[in-house]
Amino acid sequence: MVVIQDKEFGGERPLYKLHDARLERVTIHLGESSIKESGNIEAYDCTFEGKYVFWECKKFLASKCRFETSARSSLWYSKEGRLVDCLVDAPKMFRRMQGIEVQNCHFTNALETLWDCDHVDIRNSEILNADYLGMRTDNIYIDHLHLEGNYAFQYSKNVEIKNSLLNSKDALWDCENVTITDCEINGEYLAWYSRGLTLIRCHITGEQPLCYCENLTLVDCTFGADANLALEYSTVKATIKGDIHSIKNPTSGSITVAGHIGELIIDGNQKAPADCIINEIHAE
Question: Based on the structure, what is the number of domains in the chain?
Fold first, then answer.
């Protein structure tokens, strides 16, 4: 493996088609496509300032690296990419990639990040300013993520999220086959039009959560005081711990609330089969 240490590069394609190389304390200054069409690259303690760094690459690792704001759109069209202990200030990272691992990373400006990707593993990371994170991205595993940003994981399939804090309006819209366990999810209009969504021991806040859902499952979940008009036009099997502000016109299934329902709205707008069974169990 070629080792490149303590060097600086800039301009157009300075390391184009580089293969089987280890970069140590390398700085990529402003320019474009610095390591494009490359493979089997390891980068340690490097700084990336230019755009389109790892494009069309097969197998790369960036460890303890920094992607400056100017390094936008640096990870596109590649396979088998790993980021470990990295600081990422650049937006629009990860686009049309397969096989992504992110561990112990901090993203400060993750606008439009992780679009149209497949097979993603994210652990112990913080992703901020992340509007539209994970758009149309499938086969995702997440453990211990702190997310700040709206419209997360829309149109995604086969997603598992654990032990995470998701502050996201309109999260998980039109998603399919998603399981979320031991998480806090804050934001309006959670998971409308989802199919096969399962929430286990989650805490949910925000207006009108979980409407128009098909085959929704809630297991021992709790709701914040602002979670009103929940479950409208959803088919659902739910056990809810504690009180819920209001439930409106679920379509079918069963809902058991171990607490109080502030308002149960069943009116002429309920959709067929209109046979949802709702029980309140009040502690003595």
Answer: 2
Q: What is the dihedral of CA 169, 173, 178, 181, to 10 degrees?
A: 20
Mapping DSSP to helix (H, G, I), strand (E, B) and coil, where does residue 103 land? strand
Q: Domain for residue 159, yes or no?
A: no
| Token pair 């707008």 in the structure block, residue | 269
Bin 111: left if φ > 0, else alpha if -120 < ψ < 50, else beta.
Answer: beta
Domain that holds residue 219: 178-284
pLDDT at 278 over 60: yes
Specify the pTM.
Answer: 0.96
Is 209 part of any domain?
yes
Residues 87, 195: one domain?
Answer: no
Q: What is the amino acid identity at position 23?
A: L
**Over the Cα atoms of the chain, what is R_g?**
22
Looking at beta carbons, which pairs linking 37-46 to residues 24 or more positions away fall under 8 Å?
Answer: 40/1, 42/1
